[in-house]
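Re-running the complex after MR caught last week's input typo. The corrected sequence lines follow. Everything else is unchanged.
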Amino acid sequence: MESVGTGGAVEYVVASPDELPVGARKLVEVAGRSLGLFNVQGEIVAVLNVCQHELAPVCRGRVGGTTLPSLPGEFCWGREGEILACPWHGWEFDLLTGQALADPRRRLRRYPVRVEGDRVLVTL
Amino acid sequence: MNADASPQGVIDTDIHQVLDSRRMTDFLREPYRSRFLSGSRGPGHLGYWNPNGVMRSDTRLGDGRRIEGSPETLGQYFLDVYGIEFGILTGGNLHIGLSPDPDYAAAYVAAENDIVAADWLPADGRLRSSLTVSPADPALAAREIRRWAGHPGFVQVMMPSGARIPYGQRFYHPIYEAAVECNLPVAIHPGSEGVGISGAPTAAGYPTTYFEWHTGLVGSYLAHLISLVTEGVFAKFPALRFVLVEGGVSWLPPLLWRFDKNWKALRQTTPWVDRPPSEIVADHVLLTTQPVEEPPNGVHLHQILGMFDAGRMLMFSTDFPHWDGDTPDFAARALPPALRDRVMSETARELYRLPERTKSSLCETHSD
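Corrected-run output:
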């Protein structure tokens, strides 16, 4: 895997943008770490493939929408493609912020992503 | 036929068309569209829906096999990975025990037990299994238990916790008689509450969602435990051990306090309950850990585990590969250090008469 040193952090080439159209996911190994790459409505995000709860491979979970806040008996579906649900215990995470929907203290570990020409680069 | 009887204009008032299920997704709105596509389709299928599925989605291997689908994959991708010395299989179809047809149910579980004995137990020395019975006809269940008497691989009798009537009632005693005769504990496992001919999943009736149903499953455990003690099952079968699998843990101490308090006033209605119920429960009943409660302050769980004899009554379980499982490392971290050895292995080793820990594995444990 190609890497580019930038001071303390290291930037790695992890994919080409062609591999990550909107809605796509790619799991990659980077410097001994498993990462999930997701194209969320045009924004590529990189997430550590470990759930803080019981260390599950969270990036293998379902990506979809969720029900938005509503009154009892009403269902408003939204955020399609923005929510990652852990394959073990179903915890939902906002891919755009990393925040767990049910617990303000829990979040996904996200890494900076940059697209440069035909390269997607992640900084670890 | 009389030609005069030939119909002229017929109106049929009952014709069953079949809709293209793909068209349903054109018209169903979310969240019901996802629910429909995942196979939860209402009538004919218990309507409780878990959006994540009950089986973990990540146990499918790259070649399409499922980890839990064979003893080889279970050994390689689960027992090996977590360093599990022995694992007790609980995978029989417990729902069938709530079938209205007790003969089919008995035949079904017998076939499952045959498969386990033929294909699973010989394949990996770390595996032991539950002997699934259908309690719908206790005589048939007792016959199934005796059919396997002395088999070293079956280490407990397993029944669904969903039931028509509480498990202490004398209707079920032939099952306990056979289990004691064969030196087997009896276990119950949740999931069939509200299925088939079982009672409603809660005393208040049928809940609406999987979330509500799953959170309330403990209700059947309360009912069965109280019944087993008050009906005198443990007085009648002093050697019987009863295992409450996946029924939760933290509810036990306050229930036992109330149980003992009521016993002081009402013991004359069940004179065979000749000592405080909490003492009887401690001598005969065990619980499994998963899904271990996760209070915001972990010390609170430690305190609850100090309110009953957890070192003698609590056994670790993963519930693999279900959605609400606990990994061994997660459960061990949640336990007070002084209880870890008992809960993670030694109580189960005694109950199921598993071989002593080898010296090398002892060393591994201490080097952790």
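None of the earlier attempt is carried over here. The two ends of chain A are 13 Å apart (CA to CA). The domain at 3-123 of chain A is CATH 2.102.10.10 (Rieske Iron-sulfur Protein).
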